[in-house]
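Go through the following before class.
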Amino acid sequence: MLDARDLSLLRFGLIFVWLATAVASMSELQGKSLRLLTSAGIDDRTLAFALILGGAGSMPHSG
């Protein structure tokens, strides 16, 4: 069983990974992120930007 300190550390790790992913998505908005979505068949740039921004802005929550 995990104690409160372990859970806090795991939560911090999850938030750190989420923030790092958001920063990477935003820094690659015109680069790799857009190319990835284009290669997946999403040719509408407005939709692609909305998906990237939405993914970067979706905050994980604990239940």
